[in-house]
Write a structure and sequence with these properties.
The chain is of the alpha+beta class. It has two domains: about 190 residues, no CATH class; about 220 residues, no CATH class. Helices cover about 55% and strands about 20% of the residues. Strands 2-3-10-5-7-6 form a six-stranded mixed beta barrel. The chain has a two-stranded antiparallel sheet with strand order 8-9. The protein starts with a helix and ends with a helix.
Length: about 425
Amino acid sequence: MDFLGTIKLVIRTLLARKGRSFLTILGIVIGVAGVIIIIALGAGAQSLILGQITKLGSDLLSVQPGKSNEKGPPAQVFGIVITTLTDGDAQDIRDGNEVPHAKAVNSLVRGQASVTWTNKTLDTSFMGTDSYLPQVTAFDMQAGRFFTEEESSGGSNVVVLGSYVAEQLFGQSGIDPIGQVIKVKSTSQKEAGGIPLRVIGTIVPRGSAFFQDNDDMIFIPLPIGQKQILGINYLQAINIKVDFSENVQQTIDDTTRLLKQRHRILKDSDIDFTVRNIADALEILSTITDALRLFLTAMAGISLVVGGIGILNIMLATVAERTREIGLRKAVGASNMAIMRQFLLEAGTLTFLGGIVGIIIGIIISWLISLLMEYLGYDWAFVVSINSVLLAIGVSILTGVIFGLYPALKASSLNPIDALRYE
């Protein structure tokens, strides 16, 4: 029988066993779709990270409390509280001559707060900061203004609202938020009341950055955020805007030297802070996403192996069922190679079809995920590379060949006389 005839025979055989063929294909579909989705998610996550870095700019430095190695995050990421970073550190960086390329510097603390206006209450994030924030992180005011240096240093009862908070509190009423008084308290406080703050400005929609919705946030003077809401006297971060990107490394070195002097640190092993270029987060997060993607791809590979074992079992059962048919074909002149080719083609066809269906399902799910992420406000790119498609279909066919080889060899090695006698 020629190759075309063998193909026709394989198709007829598979159609005659639709249920078994479907179940055999299913494991391959899941594994291949998993490979496509995981690779697409990795590419989308990296595009998101790159977009966030682009938004923030490569000339922005962040000083975090706690020491870290070059590739790892600072200690506070793991919930370790470091209290040595203070607003005095930020003022020395800003006002002294030791860090000449620091264009603007702002101090900040963050937390969760409950905001109330009349009978409306909203749980949101807050940033306690100073008047230099607009110079460090450029944004436009939708209405009103940001608080002044005197208001921030003196802890005036003023607040600036993100666009989402302003819309939720005042959008339906049609009342201008500027001049209204809201009450703010920590979400951990169970009693009623709160700190009365007068709204002096609202910010234009800014979207999300590093999975933080900048519109679902309020901005309050640093002393209020520190002492009245969080009950602390240290900072969670200092941001530094560098004048030119080529001066970033020099500013990191200058800042490190100044803070070591202020904190009276003699040995590098005793450093209690981390100065890092925001753009470095791209490499760190990319490393994390690559490792996670590799792990998940391995999990999807296990699904392919499981699907391959399913093919092995099904093909062995098929050989047993069709022993008399194999004996009859060999009795009328079919060669061992023809028998082996038939069973290999059956296994290869099953995995090929599973690969095609898996690719289609994987692409559709990846596209739906990208639509969901865009709906949630993230700059998520829909990326399905030709390499991932070729990899998935190649692995699926290879799985069929590998796991179909033993049943094919077993079928081709049957003695025709014994096969014809098989019951």
